[in-house]
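=== RUN LOG ===
request id: a7f3
mode: sequence -> structure
chains: 1
length: 261
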Amino acid sequence: MSSPDAPRPRAPHPAERARTIAALGGRATLVPAGDPARADRFTPLLHHVHTDGTISVLLPADHELVGAAWTAPRGELATMVELADPAPVPLRESIRGLLWITGWLRALSAGEARAQALAVAEERPDPRLLDLGHTATLLTLVPASMVLADGEGTDPVSREDFVRAAPDPFATQEAGWLRHLELSHTDVVGALVRHLPADLRGGHVRPLGIDRYGLRLRVEAVDTDHDVRLAFSRPVDTPAELSRELRALVGCPFLAAQRRG
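=== RESULT ===
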C-alpha cells in the first residue's frame, strides 16, 4: 500500500458525492428514530431527494409510519433515510457508498401532497405517483443532518453545502460506461493494474466508478476488498475530456503527450 504520508488523489467534495448518490436514486430505507430497541427498516414505494435536501417519500396509505407521522407531536416524526449507492457491475460487496439523512418526517395535507407529487413528477415521472390519495400517501422528510460514507471516507455534509453542490456531470452515464468496460474491455482494466500499489496487483480488479476527478477501481483480494482512485491530471466536464484522460491512464502515448500539451 502507499505511504500514509502520501497525498490522497483529488476527489469530489463530500457534498458533491452526496448530491450524486441522491440524484442516482438508489435504494432508500427508512429507519424511525427515538427508540434504540427498534430495528424496523422500511423500504418506501418511491423516494425523491429534492435540490433543497428535503425528501419526498411515498408509502402505502395504511403504513404504520403514515399513522405515526399524523399522531406525532407537531406532526413530525424523527426518522433517518439511508440512501445506498450500488455499483453498476456485480461485485462481491455491491454498495459503493451510503448517505444517511436524519430529520423530521412530516405528514402533508391533501393539497400539499398533490403539489409535492407534481414537483417530483417534473424531475422523475413515475406511475406510482398516480396512486397518491388512493392506496398511497406522500410524506416529506426535512433534513437536520447528513453523513456520507464511501471509499473516500466518512464525512458530515451540511445542508447548505448539499444545496450548493451539483451531482457529478457523468452520473447518469456512468453505469453504462462501467458495464461496457467490464464486459468488453477487460484489456483496458488490465492495463490500469500498473497504477496500483504492488501488494494489490494480484487481486481481481474491477471497474467501480467514474467521476470528473478520476476512475475508481475495486480490488477483490483474498482477505478483503480495496477501493483505489486513479486521479486524472485535471478535473473534466465533457465526455471528450474524459476519454482523453482515460486513454492517458491506460497508456496511449499520443494521447498522453496531447494531455501534457
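=== NOTES ===
The first helix runs from residue 14 to 24.
The chain has eight helices and ten strands.
=== END ===
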